Amino acid sequence: MDKNKIIKLEYDVIVVGSGGSGSSAAQAAAEAGLNVIVISKDPLASSDTKICEGVMTVRGAGDENDTEEELANNIKLAGGDLPDKKITEAFAKDSKVAYDRLREHGLRPSINKKRNTPKTLAIAMGGHNKSRSVGHKNSGLSFGHVNWDTIIKFKNIAYFEDCWFLDVVKNMSNEKIVGGIAYDASNGKLLSIKAKAVIIAAGGLSTLFFPKTDTMRGNTGDSYAIGIRAGAALVDMEQIQFLPFCLASPPSYEGLLAGEPATGSFLGVLRDKYNKVILDSVYLRTRAECSEAIMRAVADGRGSPNGGAFLDMTANKKAKRSGKFFMEYLKSALPSAYDNARQALGKEAGKAEVPWEVRPSAHYMMGGIKVDEFGRALSYNKVSNKTKKIKGFYAAGQAMGGLFGSNRLGSTSLTEVAVFGYRAGKDAAEYVKQNKKKIDDTHFDIHHKKFFQLFNSNGKFKAYNLKIDLQRKSWKYIGAARKKKDLLAMQSYLDGLDEKVKDVLVKPNLSWNQQLIEKLELQNMILSAKAVTLASLNRDFSLGGHVRLDEKRKRIFSKPFSTLILMDSSSKLKLEKIQRERTNFITFIKYKINELYRLYNAKFIRILPDFVKDRIIENKYKKILGSKAESIEIQAGSLEAAPAEINK
Amino acid sequence: MDSDKLKVRIKLFRDKKSFEVEYIYKKKSLNERPMVLDVLLQAQEEKIDDLSFRYGCRARNCGVCTVDINGKPRLACRARVKDDDLISPISTLPVIKDLIVKRDGIPRQMIGYNRIPFKNNLNVEAESSYHNLTACIECYACLDGCPLHKKNNLEVKNNDAYSYGNPFSFLKLQRLYIDPLTPEEEKKGIIEKAKSLGLETYKKEYKNLKIKCGVGINLKDEVIKPLLNAAFSYQNEKKNK
What we know:
The complex is a heterodimer of chains A (648) and B (241).
Chain A (H helix, E strand, L loop, with lengths): L5 E5 L2 E4 L3 H12 L4 E5 L7 H4 L4 E2 L10 H11 L6 H20 L6 E2 L4 E2 L14 E2 L5 H14 L3 E5 L1 E8 L6 E8 L4 E6 L2 E4 L21 H8 L4 E2 L4 E8 L21 E3 L5 E3 L7 H13 L9 E4 L1 H5 L4 H11 L1 H11 L1 H4 L5 E10 L2 E2 L6 E6 L4 E10 L17 H22 L10 H8 L10 H16 L5 H19 L11 H25 L22 E7 L5 E7 L5 H23 L2 H16 L23
Parallel strand pairs in A: 1-11, 2-3, 2-12, 3-8, 12-21
Antiparallel strand pairs in A: 4-7, 5-6, 9-10, 10-11, 13-19, 13-22, 14-18, 15-16, 15-17, 17-18, 20-21, 22-23
Helix pairs in contact in A: 1-5, 1-12, 3-4, 4-12, 6-16, 9-18, 14-15, 14-16, 15-16
Chain B lengths: L4 E10 L2 E10 L9 H11 L19 E4 L2 E4 L9 E4 L6 E3 L2 E2 L3 H4 L19 H6 L33 H12 L5 H13 L2 H7 L13 H22 L1
Parallel strand pairs in B: 1-5
Antiparallel strand pairs in B: 1-2, 3-4, 3-5, 6-7
Helix pairs in contact in B: 4-5, 4-7, 5-7
């Protein structure tokens, strides 16, 4: 072990990640006067927040009667009663002030001059019971600039990009956080950082399914792996949000979003390779239903050439009167998705004259590190059935779980990152101020030693190739549709992969060592995949983002529970279930009846004679599009884009 | 070259030495027209397991995958490959390894630049000129051809900031300048910052200035010109006093 390869640093708070959560966390801690270090493996603020659709939930923006209780219940019900009550309440309480903080750093929405509030999208988002979604010019990029400015603004925030955060360091005698270690690839050093608090804001795990994802490359499950290794519990890890209608080809566009269930419009259907309809009334289906139909066809050998199905919207286009309105709707509803589809699939597809080949893609991790409403990471003890704070350890944004449960309302993720990033930063600052004790060097020694053990000049396997293999297996076994048999196969595959990782080639140099980077990310991906697999096995029925092809039973009346994944002292994962409170029965039944009504209504329209149908649909388009077609823009991932999504 | 293959040259940088390697890309279908990123991903899988390059969203949004194609900066995720293309790291920033350049000297020169106090009334709209600037994805294509950035010593060690500015840093300043919430008294500070980054050079070379934005922002008209104008009217004001 070479001492001059280690750089020792000391800060009050370490923030891992520089996106929406990381910048908010750093801001809160910096405002409290603390010295903060932001560690980011990608360039500053180049996160999912920067590439998202840029629509944010702001309570009260479109309706004075939008109470905190209403918003909190809205999220809880949409999440199948899995969301944590206190976390949904914190979300509803802070959404407005979190939004204003972003505006203080340059986020400039259009203003509703009559109400003197940010302007919300023209039509209330399908699943939101109030109008509260605010759109922005240049989508996520406008948020990216804000995050960048936030971190750069403070002189007491240091930032290190091209840095892979490995693990937190704890004082083993009292379990308190004393810092962390990180691999600084561009400077070729190991950073050994003393700090009393660490905030994990390092995003999700969608790269596990690459290229079947529309998110940033960096989502290699780092948050969850770091979290569980530090002793935190992971909650709802089977709940990954897949978007059903993403591109399957050409390779450069693979995984990117093409449309949402709403894109299918009134007459859109899904077909298998024999042209047989496998799902009708697509626009009234949930994402999970669409994914399930596609993946079932693939499993039965009826899939499209690239492992998907065909979204056929030609009937919409052919209709005499309503056809031209459909095109207007298609182009304006999800403009960036439509552009992807047109560029990737060609002109005819762009005119909806031929079906689109589509396949699901991983979009968002709804589960994550178990935290309380201040982002404080929690461990769980089965015997006492109690959670316990890990002192000085925090998680925020996609890294945390407990806010969305089994389904995410549209436009809520930007609020999640701004609210809980800041909450975690603020609480961490208070915690650090109360803990003045000096940190001892000795806690770090074992971590330094472990770091230098990662190198292996005689390794047999290439980490990058193992990573690609893991990505293919993840899609097959723990992707958009799951079966018990596959989940068991995944478990033994991952155990085997664990062995191979020990024998991976990592040449012993520190200056931008790509082999080391691949190995570090691979390890985190494996651990995250294990957690997803174990949680999926124990959720033996379909719920929200988790689709089980082998279990047709719906358990809508059974008591809701969340899965918890824990790591024992021998690094084995264990599963626990925690009970969740059920929402009021009447509210629930109302949702179900409304849902069935809409579905039958849609089916009824489809069997009418063509000329009657065409007129009815034409009027519907006129109602949606209004006089200005520009006002209908809807957001990918939103409930409006998949109106049937609620409480499935 | 067979129609199912494409030959590219990739410039690698290792152990302080720069050298070219050839890679034959195997098309996944005959009519595939791959992007540079597709080629790099396949090259890492098939041949160079430690090939180092940046990428993120694959959809021209995150701005991290910029490389030089035949000497000109392009986004790897949206640049089609032609036979015999040369892929090299962008020439305007120091290379760390292969196609990876050190980027953080640029944001670092802006630390503490935004000193705008928080205001009470946030319900103010920005002009379209403001939103034109937030379209920037920070791909750093604009460094190419910038006479000011050229003056920087690229051999910076560790995490130092560059002394001279570039179209991106001026875009950040101009955005702040036209933000409707920026108070008049802060605007002088913004111009001072622009000057300290060497705005003067742009004044001299404005006519010959050839800078190109990776996503099509009109940098000369929307960033450089208004800043130069503001800097001069500010100077005149001082003289008049």
